[in-house]
Structures are given as C-alpha cells and as structure tokens.
Amino acid sequence: MNNRSTRADDGLFEVETSEDVEPVEPESELGPTGRPLPDLPEPTPPEPGPKHAIIISMTNQKGGVGKTTSTINLGAALAETGRRVLLVDFDPQGSLSVGLGVNPHNLDQSIYNLLLSREYSFDEIVLSTATEGMDLLPANIDLSAAEVQLVSEVAREQSLKRVLDRIRDRYDFILIDCAPSLGLLTVNALTASDKVIIPLECEFFALRGVALLTDTISKVIDRLNPDLEMIGILATMYDSRTLHSREVLQRVLEAFGDSVFHTVIRRTVKFPETTVAGEPITSYAPTSPGAEAYRMLAREVLVRCHAG
Ligand SMILES: Nc1ncnc2c1ncn2[C@@H]1O[C@H](COP(=O)(O)OP(=O)(O)OP(=O)(O)O)[C@@H](O)[C@H]1O
Ligand SMILES: [Mg+2]
C-alpha cells in the first residue's frame, strides 16, 4: 500500500480510496483517480409529481467487467435516496435476476414476452425486490431467441424503447443490464436509453474493444437515438495493492479523462458473496467500503444526470 505518487499528473496516488475516507476538502485530498474528490451534495428526495425516468444502459461487450454488479448496486443506492428504480435484465444469462434472488429457470414469463408480444402487460412481468422502491424486469435464456426473432420485426431496434416508454412515468431511474455483446439486444438497450455507463475492469485488456463499443454508441447516436449520452466510465475491480491495477487505471484516465467517475470500485470478495445472497451490497454489508462506493457513484450519477 505504499506505492505513492506525489504529482497530480502522475495520475496514480496513495491508494486510500474514496470509500475509506471521510469526505474532505476538494483541494486537500486526491481520490483514487488522482483528481480532487468533488464535494458531492447529499441527494435530495425526488421532486413530487409525475415522473419521467432517466434510462441508463450499463454496457460493455467484454464479459465479466462488473455490469451486472454495478446495475444492482447502483440501483439499490439510488433507491436508498428515495428514487423509484426499475432494473431491466437484458442478458439471456439472467445474472441480474439471479443477483436479486430470482431463479431465471423458474420464470414462466420474462422481458422476452414484453418485447415480442403485445398480449402481456408490464404489471404481469415486473417483480418487486427486497430493496424498497426497486423493481426488476427479469430475463432468462428465452431472451436469446429474441435476438433472432427481432430481426424480422419492423423497427426492430426500438422494441425495448416501446416497452419502457409506457412505464416511464412510474420510475425515476431505469437501469438496463446489457449482455456482453454488441448485438441487437444491446442496440435496443442503447436506443431506449438517455445515458450509458461503461464499466471497465482494471486489468490489462480493459481498453481492448472499447473503441468498438464507442463506435457502436456513435452509430446509435447518429442513426437511432441522437439524445444518447455517455455519462461515465466506471473503473471496477480495482486492486490498489497491485501496480498493474494502478497502471491500468492511469491508462483509462489518459484515454477518457473526466469521463471517468471519481468513484472507483475495488475488488473485494463481498461482491461475489452478494450474488450468492441474492441481494445488493447496500443491504448485505451496508457499511462496507463496497456499499459506500456505490452510494458515492449514485451521487455522481445524480449530478451527471442533473437529477440530484
Ligand atoms: N468489485 C468487484 N470485486 C470482486 N468481484 C467482483 C466485483 N465486481 C464484480 N465481481 C464479480 O465478478 C464477476 C463478474 O461480475 P459481473 O457479473 O457484474 O460482470 P458482468 O460484466 O455483468 O459479466 P457478464 O459480461 O458475464 O454479464 C461476478 O462473479 C461478480 O460477483
Ligand atoms: Mg452481466
């Protein structure tokens, strides 16, 4: 823990991460990304009255980078601030559903039915979760058929958007957990979204494929959804003890600058444990650094979405 850099432009710092330290004056303390930690405001409760959900896709075609973990825990942290949150499992693996204690194999109906048939209503499919204010649209392997079946649909890229637009007034945030692919399902997610967050694992090949991803996002902006905005890169599975992890974080910062969230998610076994427990870290280990990190991320997201 004593690899310390003293110059701000080194990009790497003493590895006390934001989740371990008290909030401090911005000038006096550098966060794990090497920038002064912002003074993030305490989230205020959402405005009363009609809602219009901000829809965010968690996207990276690389597998195992923390998309699902971040969807669950960012969602739970937003729900803690009094927001109504819908999590959308948009991966045929159904990991988001599993992570919230739902066995995808036992589902008779899932988001697949909403996507491909008008016979089902949202209320028949949506599940409430143990986290107050947070609902789940579950998925299972059926969704893999949708990728094929949607190809012959009219406006096939807008299928998820049509589903979500109808219930947008019920939620403050809708988070979509994408599959590790850039196929039609992910294009549907990006088309339905206002914002996109890219989780990146702090390991050697992290940046490989990101150009392809940003290219896909640009194409969706040009052709399908001009309002889509990339609001941040989230560094995950950061291990401050390894030079390797710190170097990768530095490269991510060089590549993306201020797009990178100040919040950095550390590697900890608590996250796999939460999957087994089927609940977010904010309830499984509410005072853990991991829970605090996702709470800080929620604050950053609220600020970046002007929804704080
Ligand atoms: N910060 C972390 N520290 C340690 N393990 C983590 C962390 N975040 C996620 N994991 C674990 O890493 C694995 C992959 O995480 P996750 O499922 O969130 O990634 P993903 O990007 O959704 O994967 P896929 O591409 O397969 O959908 C899981 O077992 C998860 O519990
Ligand atoms: Mg996943």
Automatic annotation (TrEMBL):
CDD domains: ParAB_family, SIMIBI
Biased composition (Pro residues): 38-48
Domain AAA: 55-230
Acidic residues bias locations: 11-28
Basic and acidic residues: compositionally biased ranges: 1-10
Region (Disordered): 1-50
Family annotation (Gene3D superfamilies): P-loop containing nucleotide triphosphate hydrolases (3.40.50.300)
Function text: May play a role in septum formation.
Entry similarity comment: Belongs to the ParA family.
Protein name listed in UniProt: ParA family protein
The species this protein was found in: Brooklawnia propionicigenes
